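Purpose: get a first structural picture of the assembly so the mutagenesis plan has something to point at.
Setup: three entries, given in the order below. No constraints added.
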Amino acid sequence: MTDIATVTQQLLAQAGKVVSGKDEVVRLAWVAILSDGHVLLEDLPGVGKTSLAQTLGRLLSLDYQRVQFTSDLLPADVIGAQVYRRDQEAFQFHPGPVFTQLLLADELNRATPKAQSALLEAMEEGQVSSDGVTHALPVPFHVIATQNPQSQAGTYPLPESQLDRFFMRLSLGYPDLDSEKALLSGTRGRALLTELKPVLTADELQSLKADVGTVKVSDAVLSYVMRLVHSSRESGLCRLGLSPRGALALMTAARAMALVEGRRYVMPDDVQRVFPAVAGHRIQGQREHDTTILVKQLLDEVDVIAA
Amino acid sequence: MTQYVPIMRRVMPLSVLWVLLLVQGIMVLPFLFYMPLWLGAVFALVLIWRWRVTHGEMRQAPRSLIILSIMVGIGGLLLSGLRAYNLDSAVALCVLGYLLKSLEVMRRRDGIFQAYLGYFLTGIFLLYNYTPVGALIAIIMVLANTLALHAVTADQTFRWKRGTKLSLALMVAALPIMIAGFLFFPRLPPLWSIPNDERGAQTGMSDQVDPGSIASLAQSTAPAFRVQFDGDTPPRQQWYWRGTTLGEFDGRVWRAQFRDRNRFQWPRGQLPLAVSDADQFDYSVVLEATQQHWLYFLDWPTQIRGQDVYVLPDGRAARRNSLSQTYRYEAQSATSVNWQSEAGLQRYQRLPGQGNEALRQWGLELRQDVGSDAQYIAAILEHIRSEPFRYTLQPPLYPSADSLSDFWFDSRLGFCSHYASAVAYLARVAGIPSRLVGGYLGGTYNQSGDFIQVRQMEAHAWVEVWLNDRWQRVDPTAAVAPGRIDLNLDDWLSEDNPSDLPFGVRFGRNFGMLDGLGFWWDSVQYQWQVTILNYQQSNALGLLEARFGRINPWHAAAFMAAFLAVLGLLMAWFTGLLYLPRRSPEPWASLGRVERRYGARHPGETARDYLARLAYDYPGQREALARLAQLIDTLAYDPQATLDASRRRDLKQRVEACLAQ
Amino acid sequence: MRWPAPLQRRLDAWVSRRLPPGRQVTLNQSRIFIVPTRQGLLMLGLAMVVLLVAINFESSLNYALGFWLIAMLWAAVHLTYRNLSGLVVQAETAGLVEAGENATYSLMLSSPRTRYRGPLELRHEDWGQVVVEMDGRDTQITLSRPTQRRGRQSLPRFRLESRYPFGLVVAWSYIKMDLDAWAYPEPIEQALQPVGTEPEGDISNDHFVQTGTEDFHSLREYQAGDSVHRMHWPSFSRDELVVKHFVDYQAADQWLDWDALPGVASELRLSALAWHMLRCQQQDRPFGLRLPGQEIIPDKGPQHLERCRRALAEYGEVI
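Result (structure tokens, whole complex):
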């Protein structure tokens, strides 16, 4: 039996060496992986998105692949294609980079919608189809996609319906002063990555994922989640409220968060912690509200303890 | 955009006018049995007018029609011989107004007025008919008026089915409070006396008897009163129910010493009786409303328990107010009593100076022939027995001034009052104090209800004579018709002389199987009278009184105020004007205690965040707050944590640690 | 009922604090007020009279009737409260009208439980009373009130009341919806001054000339695809393939410019712009609108007109 709290400690400690000062983001990403979800990292270039993905892959001993999305990328470049093998005189499927356990999809919004949806379908279904043949993706399969939020020419922003496929949307932000100082003074940078030791085998990860479902949720917490969801739909603040899928994701994430905190039951604090990451990209304001503000408003207004 | 029309001035749609008209019909119909029939004619008039209105002539009735109707109405009132200033005429006027009002019902205000007047008339109706059937009719009336009220409010949206359902819902929902009010509201004495309260005719024994008056009572099968014995029931032959004692004779009419007219001279006091070693009986009587004052007792009464009762010295009792409702009292009787020497005996020897000379002569001669007063009485009865006297319900009228002589010597046809009158007269001729007693003889035992029902038909008169220092009952009817003593009048007559019986009685007797139903219905009515009509709030307050002592008017007022206050609070709470602090379960109650001390939690703050904020603001309490936060979280969200006694104690301690400065 | 002014102000302030506006208002305990009506008080009086009859005539059944009437008044509170409780009022849309016309607002009444709620009355002095029968389904209501001036026309706080089913009590709530209609200025004629930046030019500059069907313009050489109907047959006889060329004249985009009305008060400027818009629309000419800080590129059609009118209505208002 792997003690999840210890594992989390180790994970955070190790990751801190590479992406320092970002414990909470690492923890949320860890929660997302425990919940069997995919992560969308929305950030400026050069704040360490790739490092985070690589670190996670290494610490969780997951196969790691990276695809740089560009506007000329074709779906086949992601999922693979049938290739004619002359020696065997037959077409054979040549698997693309998607056949891995942890895929970093860099700058997803630069690719054409066609290429984007190829990846998103793979994420949704856990399998890819090529020329009518279905190929199962490895288990576990996680995608960490990054996206540059600055509206730039030549990008295809992900439509709302596609955003829902991502379990969480995270953002690293600039490092704080101390971390940046350490970063600048340090010499080794990414070289550290190779020194990281896995804290978990892939099998152990799978068994931990199974544990998430066993975390208890009391009626009080359930009704709090219901109120949050209901309020996002009905308060008039939001044009688009949280979908049932979003609500389910919120519940799963809160469970995983409780587990990460070493508890077998969920508290409203867990819900509040995961809420911005899980709900932020699934709701939309009445006008051009910043959803961050909207999310905060929802958390502030909905009474945690039932009236 | 429409001009705002004040609600009461809005014109009602046709459908609602129809409802109102129907309700009016329902309301007036039961009154027709009590009111002069011409009111029906007025209703027909109104109906015709309304018909025109509902068929397109939407306008007020012309003034001339209204004046005509009022004149017809008042003329009818005068013609039907209702006296001014009595309840009947007031009610008739009220019903008339109710009918005529609808000539101009057009706007909501009028409709509501009609419904309210309808409620009031329901109350009036209950003064006339307070049987279970009457109550049922009243319920229908209330329903009808509630429906009318609903129709007026619902306006265009009125639907029969929905309206009836809502009206019933309102009435049913109101029942609990209605019952509480009924049970606990103190029954106050009347605030003022009602002049000439003559709803329907007086029934029962009057305080004056002329020879024919009892025979008319004998035509009626209506119940007079019901008696329930507590313990032994006396034998059938002793069911002499005593009501009025008539001691003054003017040659034709016997009158009571204490009458309705001289109520203010009535003495107060105890029955001047002492019980001898005879059998005693305890019983309660439920007397139908007679509009008179006289209470009935088994011969001889020794005790009476009832409210506002005068005990009169001639062996009877009366109620101060006339009996406008059924009245229940408890009494005790004995088969024989010891009379103290009576002071005013000469009052019972007085005779008018003239009239009935022949009978007087006959009496005096007879007295000289026999040895004693007792033998004299016996000889009179023997005379009745031996001569061809006949007992009949249809005696001749005896209109002359010598009516007793005519009866005694010529036709010899008479009813109990004739015989009693003649015998009492003969006794006085011989100087024996004597008087007539009016009351009832017999009754029917109701098995299912365990009570004796006495009908008006059992009305009877007999004689009392003062012999051997005591009043003795002499019933000449026993001499002329011995069977009457053992049988009720109708039973006796149907054996002996069926043609004397009123048709209705004869007809009813031929359906033996209906008897069971009749008995059942009698007992239902008895229960109704005992439990509902004669309900005294003391029944429910008895328990309270037993606990808190006698309840005086102040207590009652305080109780009423408290009752209304509770009602008001309930209402305020329900309507959201008043918030009851809700008792929250642990651990929220504990959190609430902390909040009251340190300021409220923001809605979006979890308990842990809140306590952490407090810990930041009050560093001295950091430890205690953290300990509390941990426990609260566990108790609130861990489904496996149960709040047992020790946890509860722990929680309490931790909260107090936080609150301690 | 009117109260003295200071009291009325405080009352208003209290009501708006207690009943804050929103796009959607759910009526609950804290929003619904309920009191007996005059009719209800009369019922109480009637009950007292019946009790008096009961006392004086010692009539037990009249006691019962009297208390029944009182209790019915009490029970009516529940029935009437039910009509409003849980009712959801939702702001839908509000119109764009000319100042001085009636602005319309559309609201949606819905309730989570399908219960018949009887006729509800929406009252405000601007529209008198609007009665709507609420039978559990979603019900749309349109309110209409006159506009006095250009600009935002908020739906005023109105009273929603129910006396159903017996009129004995009245339950009501004051409802302030976050719903604005807009009134664009009344068109007033006023000549536009040419604006300096606009290029001066002759008629040919002023007009678009584009291929069309209306006016004959010139002859030109045949190109593959030209219609046979437009062949210039006389030239054909001379062995020249020439077609007739038709054009439509179209006015250049007219810019309706705020600055084209120098020295005019701003409300009047807006009115003038509205007038020119209407004229352009009637003549079916495209036009654009320039307001300080806002520009709507030339176009035509009812939607465009609507958009420009909206811009005029919103001008200077905080949105």
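Residues 213-301 of chain A form a domain with the Helicase, Ruva Protein; domain 3 fold (CATH 1.10.8.80).
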